[in-house]
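Figure 6 in text form: structure in, sequence out.
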């Protein structure tokens, strides 16, 4: 009887310990109304949990995954075992986190994503410190690899169809064999984070412009320029620093060489003329979903890594018109303000360095009241930029609606230093509760205010493009 009493006491102590650590089992299955499921920390997987919560707040990305995974529905009907696809696994997790598929528990297990990534030869340990931004690129590159593995019909009209995606397939015909078989458009299957950068080179001597080069990007990785004492750092400062022009010396200019050769008789050969070029970056194609990475890694004079903790101001709405390469159509509000204030220049950026500037020296086409990440000169909250529904333009009746307007969907924050820390996420509540913000740290989920979100030291920002009444809803318009 004494041994039974000892065993009973041990069992009671064990049950009490489980209750203290995990809470009542029945309570864990009842998620509070208006919240989303949390994610179980499998060791040190807060980097993955925070990224998944951020991605689940982007409806366009979930819709793309639904369209992309439709090709696997026929495979699921076949009896033989099919390989696991990253897109299918990721879609199931994001749908559950966005409450499109009601889970049985309030805490989900995302270990299935790590297993699929390991099958794709990504060795990601759940017990080591990892980076959320690096995992974002692992996911996007793996999705692109999965897309490229799909069979595609290729013919001579592929390039022409890519240049003119609006052309109807029936209009492309061959003289000898009639209509061509349907071709899957490669660009339509691009994920909504896919964008393009333009690189423009102009000779300082002859002003000859080299052909524009295009590079793809999945996220904009912005360095934080040197801070100016007494002035807040804004997202506009980081964006202008990213696209600020730079001088490239000792570059061969074919046009200068040609001009020099025309002045020499008898066809004598001359050396290639080397001059200084001005390089300018712009955004050639803005994605439907925009991921902005703020680089918080810096190096000390001794070569040790340091983390930059300063706050970069950002807003609920982001206007990207002034960063777009050759924006077609009607002029945006930012450009109209720029024409009325031609004396305004970029905020103290010279040769990639930030300098002291006055209040009038705001980014081209902006005013202190209308900057991305800044408010009016007063310390009061910019309520006109924080409206939950639409972008307010009543304050600017002379301006048209911006073409490239983005709405903040999620913010990933890193607490700690370069050696250890913890990732948390601020995200919008799904569905009709989109004006409600949530704070999520692995299994913990609570409500948050927009003021708390905008005060966070952001590491990753997730924006999604919104369209006005007169703008098409297709992301291909970018």
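Output sequence:
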């Amino acid at each position: 009887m004494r041994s039974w009493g000892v065993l009973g006491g041990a069992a009671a102590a064990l049950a009490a310990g489980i209750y203290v650590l995990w809470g009542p089992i029945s309570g864990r299955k009842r998620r509070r109304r208006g919240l989303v499921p949390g994610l179980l920390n499998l060791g040190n997987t807060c980097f993955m949990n925070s990224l998944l919560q951020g991605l689940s707040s982007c409806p366009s990305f979930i819709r793309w995954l639904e369209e992309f995974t439709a090709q696997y529905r026929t495979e699921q009907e076949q009896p033989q075992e099919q390989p696991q696809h990253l897109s299918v696994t990721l879609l199931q997790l994001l749908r559950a986190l966005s409450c499109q598929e009601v889970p049985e528990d309030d805490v989900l297990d995302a270990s299935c994503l790590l297993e699929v990534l390991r099958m794709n030869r990504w060795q990601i340990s759940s017990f080591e410190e990892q980076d959320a931004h690096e995992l974002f690129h692992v996911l996007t590159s793996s999705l692109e690899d999965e897309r490229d593995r799909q069979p595609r019909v290729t013919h001579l009209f592929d390039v022409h169809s890519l240049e003119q995606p609006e052309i109807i397939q029936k209009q492309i015909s061959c003289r000898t064999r009639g209509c061509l078989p349907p071709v899957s458009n490669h660009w339509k299957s691009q994920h909504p984070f896919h964008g393009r950068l333009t690189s423009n080179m102009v000779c300082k001597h002859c002003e000859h412009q080299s052909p524009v080069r295009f590079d793809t990007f999945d996220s904009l990785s912005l360095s934080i320029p040197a801070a100016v004492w007494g002035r807040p750092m804004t997202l506009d400062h980081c964006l202008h620093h990213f696209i600020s022009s730079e001088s490239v010396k000792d570059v061969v200019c074919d046009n200068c060489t040609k001009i020099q050769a025309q002045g020499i008789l008898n066809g004598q050969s001359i050396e290639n003329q080397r001059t200084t070029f001005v390089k300018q970056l712009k955004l050639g194609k803005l994605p439907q979903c925009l991921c902005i990475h703020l680089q918080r890694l810096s190096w000390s004079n001794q070569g040790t890594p340091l983390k930059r903790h300063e706050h970069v101001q950002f807003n609920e709405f982001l206007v990207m018109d002034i960063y777009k390469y050759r924006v077609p159509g009607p002029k945006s509000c930012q450009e109209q303000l720029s024409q009325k204030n031609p004396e305004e220049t970029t905020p103290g950026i010279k040769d990639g360095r930030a300098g002291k500037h006055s209040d009038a020296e705001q980014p081209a086409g902006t005013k202190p009241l209308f900057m991305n990440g800044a408010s009016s000169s007063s310390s009061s909250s910019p309520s006109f930029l924080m409206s939950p529904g639409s972008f307010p333009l009543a304050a600017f009746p002379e301006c048209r609606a911006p073409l490239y307007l983005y709405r903040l969907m999620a913010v990933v924050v890193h607490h700690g230093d370069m050696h250890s820390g913890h990732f948390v996420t601020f995200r919008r509540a799904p569905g009709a509760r989109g004006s409600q913000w949530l704070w999520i740290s692995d299994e913990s989920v609570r409500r948050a205010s927009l003021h708390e979100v905008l005060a966070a030291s952001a590491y990753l920002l997730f924006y999604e493009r919104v369209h006005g009444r007169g703008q098409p809803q297709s992301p291909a318009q970018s």
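Caption detail: The longest strand covers residues 274-285.
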